[in-house]
């Protein structure tokens, strides 16, 4: 005889079914925890387990002081060798992109950043913090560190468009990037800029940007909302043959 799913799993599945059927439409406000507890006749602990699983899977999301909402369709971020900028990827999905610069300053970075950029203790970098939006909703928070000796000028106007364009326009040629992706639990700063609850899991992408000379011109840490972004990877085996 098959084992019955645990109570919190049955509650979770019932909510998923109602989301998929349109009973709880995309973007709609869900019942409160108290209302859900009465609805399913369960304890708050059992109910929270079900909701936390849905949060982790990106089916729902929370807004501080406003409640719990049904997640919208996720933004697809292409990780393969696409030349489309982030803004162009959003436009291709029918969304309106926007960038907001929240911090821009010239400073001596921490040792970790120096190591990533291959610079010494005395070299200066531009620190640029930006929020990216899709249809006025926070999707990504980015902290970029750019070598000031290779890129002498960065203004807020430049940072509001394309940092790569800014780098290339000052006598550089970007050749390639190396990117690492992992799950990251949001701290206070990241949560504030992404409009999520502190402790919510995010995707973190750490990127080193190399010039044609193989110098690292930029190192960035980008944090993506796990409930609003999914990643797409394309592999082309036509030229490499059967390597599987």
Quickly describe the structure.
This protein has 244 residues and is α+β, with helices and mostly antiparallel strands. The chain contains eight helices and ten strands.
Features:
8 helices, elongated, alpha+beta, two-stranded antiparallel sheet, 244 residues
Structure description:
With 244 residues, the protein is α+β, with helices and mostly antiparallel strands. The chain is 28% helix and 33% strand. The strands form 3 sheets. The protein has a 6-stranded antiparallel beta sheet. Strands 1-2 form a two-stranded antiparallel ribbon. The protein is elongated, with a radius of gyration of 21 Å. 25% of the residues are buried.
Counting DSSP E segments of at least 2 residues, the number of strands comes to 10
Oligomeric state as shown: single chain
Largest sheet: 6 strands, antiparallel
Shape: elongated
Spans of at least 5 consecutive residues whose pLDDT stays below 50 are none
Overall pLDDT metric: 86
What order do the helices and strands come in, and which of them pair?
Blueprint: H1 7-21, H2 33-40, H3 44-57, E1 60-63, E2 67-70, E3 75-78, H4 86-92, E4 97-107, H5 111-117, E5 125-134, E6 137-147, H6 156-159, H7 163-168, E7 174-185, H8 188-194, E8 201-211, E9 216-225, E10 229-232
Parallel strand pairs: 3-10
Antiparallel strand pairs: 1-2, 4-5, 5-6, 6-9, 7-8, 8-9
Helix pairs in contact: 1-3
């Amino acid at each position: 005889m098959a084992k019955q799913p645990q109570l919190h799993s049955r509650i979770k599945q019932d909510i998923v079914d109602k989301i998929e059927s349109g009973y709880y439409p995309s973007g709609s406000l869900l019942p409160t925890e108290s209302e859900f507890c009465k609805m399913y006749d369960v304890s708050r602990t059992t109910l929270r387990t079900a909701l936390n699983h849905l949060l982790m899977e990106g089916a729902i999301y929370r807004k501080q002081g406003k409640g719990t909402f049904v997640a919208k369709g996720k933004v697809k971020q292409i990780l393969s060798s696409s030349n489309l900028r982030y803004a162009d990827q959003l436009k291709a999905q029918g969304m309106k992109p926007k960038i907001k610069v929240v911090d821009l300053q010239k400073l001596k970075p921490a040792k970790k950043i120096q190591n990533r950029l291959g610079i010494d203790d005395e070299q200066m970098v531009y620190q640029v913090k930006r929020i990216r939006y899709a249809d006025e909703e926070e999707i990504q928070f980015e902290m970029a560190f750019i070598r000031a000796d290779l890129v002498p000028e960065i203004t807020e106007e430049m940072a509001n468009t394309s940092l790569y364009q800014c780098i290339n326009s000052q006598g550089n040629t970007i050749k390639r990037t190396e990117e690492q992706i992992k799950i990251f639990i949001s701290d206070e700063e990241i949560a504030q800029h992404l409009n999520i609850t502190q402790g919510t899991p995010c995707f973190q992408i750490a990127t080193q940007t190399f010039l044609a000379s193989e110098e690292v011109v930029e190192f960035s840490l980008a944090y993506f909302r796990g409930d609003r972004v999914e990643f797409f990877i394309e592999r082309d085996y036509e030229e490499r043959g059967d390597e599987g």
